[in-house]
Structure formats: structure tokens, C-alpha cells
TrEMBL record:
Pfam families hit by this protein: PDZ_6 (PF17820)
Protein family: Belongs to the peptidase S1C family.
Keyword annotations from UniProtKB, A to Z: Hydrolase, Protease, Serine protease
Protein name (database record): PDZ domain-containing protein
Organism: Sphingomonas limnosediminicola
Domain PDZ: 162-253
InterPro entries documented for this protein: PDZ, PDZ_6, PDZ_sf, Peptidase_S1_PA, Peptidase_S1C
Amino acid sequence: MDVTSEADGTAVVPASAYSADGWLVTSAAELPPMPLDAVFGDGRRVNLVDQRKDPVSGLAIVKAETTVAPLTFSDQTFPRVGQFGMAITTAIGSGCSAAVSMIGSDFLADGGSGVGYFRLRPAPDDWTAGTPLVAADGQVVGIGTDAPLGALIPAPIASVILDELIRNSLSASTKFGFRTIDYAAPFSSRLGDFRSGAGVAIVQAKSSAEKAGLQAGDVITTVDGHPISSASELSRLLDAASSKVTLTVKRRSEQVQLAIKRSTNS
């Protein structure tokens, strides 16, 4: 389906059904203010009554006034390089199309990224942020993002963000310009011999976290000297923190300390 502007009816961004009660996932990059419509592949046009955006990932959700059949999001953190999938797009009111593409690399192979992504090679024609990639088993493995161009946020990371948006309660880490996931396989197996901590999944562009040097793939082990073992424990400490925190970060064989300020917009 597509999200369109009620003013002129033009397509804005692709969207996918995330929950049965009408929440759709899309990209925040080009999403205009309300009022908006969702146009389904069978031509139905449904009014959207709410939209919420995550400033760190660039993902957004919109609420349609209808029930939908949601897609299933994979719980595999990073699909393997060489895996094939189908990028699903919808021409307004005229069915859908699927472009077959292969996963060619990810942020660890490419190096130095602020986003924990995987990338398609070749990228499908007319690739647009918000496009879902569906594996052969029918599960969504990633959602297209604008940064870096042509990359996708893995489904389990996207699911955490989307669930927070539905609850209207974003993780405290977003106030400091980044997002984390629990440090677990297969994510951990490619980063080094670490046993605990919160894995950095996404760093917001131009944020204090990016300026301090935080990168996707870093493992945060302490906040102001307090050890942490999970993303939820990190969030609790950040929620109670002052305007500035010092993080101990492991980056493969290195350990560094980074001072990060709370966003003035939080």
C-alpha cells in the first residue's frame, strides 16, 4: 500500500501493515502533515487518523481507520549475505509488484556506519525508503531507510522501534541520539568476545552521540560507571541521568569512554 496526501492524491511513501488494528509502518523522511490517506493495492482508500515518528531511525507509523492483515516480521537480527528477498511495492490502486534482490553486504562488512543495516545488490529500480523486503518464507526481514541510501533496517530492530511508537513511549536512549538492542547472537558473534552490554543499533545523524564518535556495532558496558547487561537496563539508567552521561564502549579489541549530551528537544 501507499501513504498519500489528501490534498492532491499523489503517492508519498510505501507502507506495510504492521498490526491488525490498522497501524502501518513507513518512512518518516517524506511524510507530510495530516490529513493523509492509505491506498491499498485493491484500490481502497482509507483515512489515516494518527502518525508518529522516530527521530533516530527515520521510521514512522500511521494509523488507518480499518483492520488489516499484518505482515510477520522476522526475528533473525541480521539476514545472511547472499540471501534473496522480494522488495514489495504498490502502484496506487493497481495491485503490487515484487523485485527480487540479493543481500550483498551489511554495516559490519562495509564498516564505520551509524546504522545497523544490510544492503541489497543490486538495489531494485525506484527503490524508496519504507519499502519492505520479504523473504521466501513470507516474513519481512527489513524496512528500507534513507541512511545510508539503499539500505534496510533489520526487522527485529524495526519491530522494537515500532512497538515503542504504538505505545507512544520511546526508549530513553533516543533522548541521547541513539538506539540499542540486546547483545545476543548472531549480532554478538560478529563483534568480538563480549559477554554482556547493550549493542548500538542506530546513531542519529548530527546528534551528540554521533559527534562523540558512537557507532553502530559498539557495545555499551557502563553508564557513568554503572555496569549494564541489557538494552532495557541501559534505558533505565539513561532515563534517570542528568543532561550528560559518560559511556564505556567496547569496539572489538578497544575500549573507549564517550561523553554524550541529552538532546535539548527531549
